[in-house]
């Protein structure tokens, strides 16, 4: 068990379907524009990708082909990283702007290890599975020129999580890291391996079955293809 004072959820953010010309979702709507919820929100396993959406009750996932499901049930992003982007972009970025369900404080989200488990508010337990890959919906939502490339260069990607134990979470809840794996495979390393530095893919295998299944498949295929 790892306890660090000051780690908490600043806000729990939910999205509702809104029109977007940049999404491939049926009906041309997206749930990326998320806003802080007023009260507690139930978090549960939404089920397999393609059928399940968000792990948070009341949160819209409109393109279930690419988003949501058990291994991408919750998306977290650090307030510290939002603050850095605020300074670079010269504009306010309220909690939820990056489409994150959880805006955190005092927690190394991109540096979290795959398989790392967080207990939130003494109830729900979430497990890190991967980093977040930027898409055209994200770029359209931000409206910043060359956004996908800019976001990719930083590799401060935030983290997707699966729900290990359901529960109610709310803004202000403390976060406790109850399990941290011995390997060094972080959400940021995953992101770099599957985007700009594919030679890092073999390193992902150290995370084992905790890794997002699609990334695990890519890593295994890369190793097989480059076996001597």
Structure description:
It is a single chain. This protein has 228 residues and is of the alpha+beta class. The chain has a single domain, classed as M1 Pyruvate Kinase, Domain 3 (Beta Barrel), CATH 2.40.33. Helix content is 22%, strand content 23%. It is built from 6 helices and 12 strands. It has helices at residues 79-89, 136-142, 147-154, 187-194, 201-204, 213-225; strands spanning 8-15, 18-19, 29-30, 34-36, 41-43, 74-78, 102-105, 117-120, 124-130, 159-165, 167-169, 175-179. Strands 4-1-7-6-10-9-8-12 form an 8-stranded mixed sheet. It has a two-stranded antiparallel ribbon with strand order 2-3. Strands 5-11 form a two-stranded antiparallel ribbon. It is globular and about 55 Å long. The mean pLDDT is 93.
- Describe the main β-sheet briefly: 8 strands, mixed
Distance between the termini: 40 Å
Oligomeric status: single chain
Mean pLDDT: 93
Estimate the global geometry from the Cα principal axes.
Answer: globular
Helix and strand arrangement:
Blueprint: E1 8-15, E2 18-19, E3 29-30, E4 34-36, E5 41-43, E6 74-78, H1 79-89, E7 102-105, E8 117-120, E9 124-130, H2 136-142, H3 147-154, E10 159-165, E11 167-169, E12 175-179, H4 187-194, H5 201-204, H6 213-225
Parallel strand pairs: 6-7
Antiparallel strand pairs: 1-4, 1-7, 2-3, 5-11, 6-10, 8-9, 8-12, 9-10
């Amino acid at each position: 068990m790892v306890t660090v004072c000051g780690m908490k959820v600043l806000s729990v953010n939910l999205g509702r379907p809104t029109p977007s010309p940049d999404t491939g979702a049926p009906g041309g709507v997206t749930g990326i524009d998320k806003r802080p919820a007023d009260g507690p929100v139930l978090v549960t396993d939404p089920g397999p990708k393609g059928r399940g959406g968000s792990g948070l009750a009341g949160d819209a996932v409109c393109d279930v082909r690419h988003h949501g499901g058990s291994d991408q049930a919750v998306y977290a992003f650090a307030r510290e990283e939002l603050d850095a982007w605020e300074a670079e972009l010269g504009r306010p970025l309220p909690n939820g702007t990056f489409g994150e369900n959880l805006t955190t404080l005092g927690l190394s989200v991109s540096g979290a290890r795959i398989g790392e488990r967080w207990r939130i508010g003494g109830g729900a337990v979430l497990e890190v599975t991967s980093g977040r890959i930027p898409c055209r919906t994200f770029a359209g939502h931000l409206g910043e020129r060359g956004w996908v490339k800019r976001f990719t260069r930083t590799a401060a990607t935030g983290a997707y999580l699966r729900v290990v134990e359901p529960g109610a979470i709310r803004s202000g809840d403390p976060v406790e890291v109850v399990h941290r794996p011995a390997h060094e495979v972080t959400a940021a390393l995953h992101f770099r391996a599957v985007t700009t530095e594919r030679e890092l893919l073999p390193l992902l295998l150290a995370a084992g079955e905790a890794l997002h299944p699609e990334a695990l498949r890519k890593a295994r295929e890369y190793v097989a293809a480059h076996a001597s």
